[in-house]
Amino acid sequence: CHAHPLPVLVRQVDIAERQYQNGTAFYSHLFDMSGYVPLTIVLMRLGQRHHAHDVMKRCVYLTSLPKGGRPSETAMIRQERARCLSAGALAIFPIDEQASRAAIAEAL
């Protein structure tokens, strides 16, 4: 029997939000954003496109904050931002095609 992924992903994102609020640096190995993209996709699949879009916007916001850092950190931040934008673009395409296309363009 498999557990539904939604509660697990929500918890994973909640942990990341607490890490952010506690001042953990985005590019620190302690800061884990791995739940945002899967949560966006699960919400999309459940028909909760607006909520999926909200998760994507939060992920994009978090990836827009870090400045500077080593080149490897900057590349990691850009890569995570592109993942967020790509997943969000899928989620919002049926409700806002123009915004979806803009997210895809930015991800590229």
General description of the model:
The chain has helices at about 5-20, 35-45, 50-65, 70-90, 95-105. It is mainly alpha-helical and about 110 residues long. The protein starts with a helix and ends with a helix.
Largest sheet: none
**Contiguous helical run count:** 5
Note the run of SSEs as H and E.
HHHHH
Mean pLDDT: 84
Label the structural class.
Answer: mainly alpha
Shape annotation: flat
Could you list the spans in which at least 5 consecutive residues all have pLDDT below 50? none
What is the number of beta strands?
0
The amount of beta strand, in percent, is under 5%
**Termini, distance in Å?**
39 Å
What is the gyration radius calculated from CA atoms?
14 Å
Could you estimate the helical fraction of the residues in percent? over 70%
Any descriptors?
108 residues; mainly alpha; 5 helices; 70% helix; flat
Task: Summarize, please.
The chain is mostly helical.
Helix-strand layout with pairing:
Layout (H helix, E strand, L loop, with lengths): L4 H17 L14 H10 L3 H16 L6 H22 L4 H11 L1
